[in-house]
Amino acid sequence: MSDLMARLLALVHSPAGAEPLAVMRLSMVDWLACGIAGADEPVARIVRDMVLEEGGAGQARLFGGGAAPMRVAALVNGAASHALDYDDTHFAHIGHPSVAILPAALAVAEHVGADVSALTSAALRGTEASVRVGLALGRGHYQVGFHQTGTAGAFGAALAAAILLDLDEARTAQALGLVSTRAAGLKSQFGTMGKPLNAGLAAAGGVEAALLAARGFVSNPGALEGQNGFLSTHRADGAPHQPEGWLMTGVSHKFHACCHGLHATLEALASLGPLDPAAVRAVRIETHPRWMTVCNQPEPATGLGAKFSYRTVTALALLGHDTAALDSYTDALACDPAVAALRDRVTVEAVDTVAETAARVTFDTAAGPLIAGFDLDTPLPLAERAQRIRRKAAALLGPDGAEAAWRAVEGGTVAEIAALLGPV
Amino acid sequence: MSDLMARLLALVHSPAGAEPLAVMRLSMVDWLACGIAGADEPVARIVRDMVLEEGGAGQARLFGGGAAPMRVAALVNGAASHALDYDDTHFAHIGHPSVAILPAALAVAEHVGADVSALTSAALRGTEASVRVGLALGRGHYQVGFHQTGTAGAFGAALAAAILLDLDEARTAQALGLVSTRAAGLKSQFGTMGKPLNAGLAAAGGVEAALLAARGFVSNPGALEGQNGFLSTHRADGAPHQPEGWLMTGVSHKFHACCHGLHATLEALASLGPLDPAAVRAVRIETHPRWMTVCNQPEPATGLGAKFSYRTVTALALLGHDTAALDSYTDALACDPAVAALRDRVTVEAVDTVAETAARVTFDTAAGPLIAGFDLDTPLPLAERAQRIRRKAAALLGPDGAEAAWRAVEGGTVAEIAALLGPV
Fold it and tell me: Which of A78, A322, A369, B171 stands 20 to 30 A from A171 (CA)?
């Protein structure tokens, strides 16, 4: 048995402390908010309409309404929950774990009648698996063009589904071996509906692999690490040794409705309190070089473009627009003269010594320079994280909707969680 | 527009002569025979059982019975028709085109009510697209561990489905851009049920991409060739220039029920007529080095292993076992003492100067050396090809079944073809 596969299988029975489970539940609330709010986005509607026309057993609910077979629900719910690009990120592998894992885990949990504790436990282990496969794949895999949400995510989705289907170790290994042959996703879909679909494909592929393994499908458990295996074909250059402990606790939740590469900058800005934009002569942002090709659109003319623009979000924040609100990213605001004028005073610089998760912002003001920095890797106390996620959910769903999501996850049932997605 | 994408799109309206269409129809008969004969293989049953439990609109028939939504039928029928590994191969990209393209094309044709001429035309263009994407991916892509049937096949399936859904050029380009993010398949599944599933995944992914594009899904048509695109992520090293004409006419049909890498050797043997095995002191097979890791199992103990063993199939052929018959590849025969004794007199040698599609066989006999060679690339006259495919179909389906398949393809309807797969 290869090292990584053994580690993934060992996750199934590894005891989890209270904190990783609590963070997983926070991610579930966060994911529900993103999926419910994203259910009417064009990508979600298109995929949902396709599968509703296909019909089939209503095994699991869909964001936006209706129900479908488990692997089909996983496809729709992955795409819907990633449609707003407002869901969580794990920077250990630069991927979005919840949108690949939770659609798979919830669909299976709903169909098999699992309780929330079993759902949380399986989702935690699936997320952990995706981050660990992502770590093994490394930065080279991402840099060459693979989208870890889709590739590493499929392994996590398969593991979560296998756990909820109660597969034994041999069949779980078969599911992971089988998903190796279809784990996929390209960064060249960024900026299109293909990006959220990658999450759905990972979730659906994971469920499918687990369902087939449950029926005795024979694959090759060496297909992840062996000769011609996924790590070798997909340009893995990650560390051969994996850190101990639960990496899940290091997941980052988004509190701004834009690319996660911009968040350290926005947190640094916020740490200074309100500034008078008229007093700002110039702003210099220092960031890790990796983000220059991801979210450094200099003068975007659309709201979608603004979500990938250091200069634009900095101008929005300084002008008092709420960067947590979806409607701050409109075409009109991206082209607003005040935003454009302030944006022209912002420069972005790639600095090797700035961490991938950090940013440093320097303001040139009449009163002298102001410097602020932030690193998203800074541990956020659990209570503060919970409070911010509740606030985000309330902004997306209204206070009643947020409260319902919170109650369903913290002490409710899987049926109550599923009912939040939409009517059957 | 990039070169390869432009070429794929141009296929849609390229006039096809009688020969490529005739070869495509032969591949349809061959594919039907393989799928009907393979419908009870374990991989086919497992995938079919899973989707029948899911239910859904009976848009398209399944090998072995039942019907399912188009993209689901494509999954089942791809796996079922590749289960016996007896379907066609195109050596320009070392992939099995029909098992990826025809499940997609037939499912859509059945649902939209196309006629056989439209089905054949779309399948031809899809096949051509898969071979051409495979040529661009090149030998390096295959050698590093990707299974072209799954990767290149998905593009062909998407194009065939897009044509039958009557998508305009822009939406066809969207379908091809979208399928880039999920075209997948690893050689590490060889020898397991994962290999035939790769064909089903390609077919299903192609149908799904075309259905989503038909609904207005926005992807990136540059995702095949552009930055971070499929060719760059998936290690393409093929020739930048594509040959003219229809490559479909170069497809190879299998007339032996084993790995295609062994067929040149078996054809060379057959060209000598019956030999007295007792008179054969030694046999030396010279083959291209590529096949040494594919089908050179020296002493397989199983029927499946025998299908990937130069030495074993040579012994079987010399002893008069019919290498075209499925039941010549049993565990018992692989372990038969007469087979083992003759096998021990066979040596296999990798020779760089032998073409990938060729083999040279030298017999050391009491009467002196006997030398025979064969190249699968040797054009087979259409009438002879048709005759051999009819004979193969009759061996797999019985004479009545073969005749029904032939009549349905040559002058029948798509409904008649679909009905051959099984009862609803």
Answer: A78
> How high is the ipTM of this complex?
0.95
Cα distances from B406 to residues A241, B57, B235, B263, in angstroms, run 58, 28, 40, 24
- DSSP-derived secondary structure for B148-199: HHHHHHHHHHHHHHHHHTT--HHHHHHHHHHHTTT---BGGGTTSTHHHHHH
- For chain A, state the CA radius of gyration: 21
Statement: residue B222 has pLDDT above 60: yes
Query: What are the tens digits of pLDDT across the range A131-142?
Result: 999 999 999 999
3-state secondary structure of A361: strand
- For residue A398, what are the contacts with CB-CB under 8 A and spacing of at least 6? none
Q: Cα separation of B361 and B135, whole Å? A: 29
Question: What residues does each domain of chain A span?
Answer: 3-252+381-421, 260-375
B-contacting residues of A 23-52, CB under 8 Å? Answer: 42-43, 46-47, 49-50
Over range A51-64, report the average pLDDT.
98
pLDDT in tens, B157-173: 999 999 999 999 999 99
Q: Does B177 touch chain A (CB under 8 A)?
A: yes
For chain A, say whether B66 makes contact (Cβ under 8 Å). no
Q: Whole-model pTM above 0.90? A: yes
- B54–A69 C-beta distance less than 8 A: yes
Q: Which residue among A147, A186, A218 places its CB closest to the CB of B192?
A: A218
Shortest distance, CA B369 to any CA of chain A (angstroms): 39
Please list every residue in chain A whose beta carbon sits closer than 8 Å to the beta carbon of residue B175.
none
CB contact under 8 A, A186 and B223: yes
* Side-by-side strand order, sheet with A358-365: A346-350, A280-287, A358-365, A368-375
- Kindly report, residue by residue over B256-282, the tens digit of the pLDDT: 999 999 999 999 999 999 999 999 999
CB pairs under 8 A between A and B: 178
User: Does B191 sit within 8 Å of A219, measured CB to CB?
Assistant: no
Which CATH number applies to B3-252+381-421?
A: 1.10.4100.10
Same fold, A3-252+381-421 and A260-375: no
Q: Is the dihedral of CA A67, A68, A71, A74 positive or negative?
A: negative
Contact indicator for B329, B303 with CB cutoff of 8 Å: yes
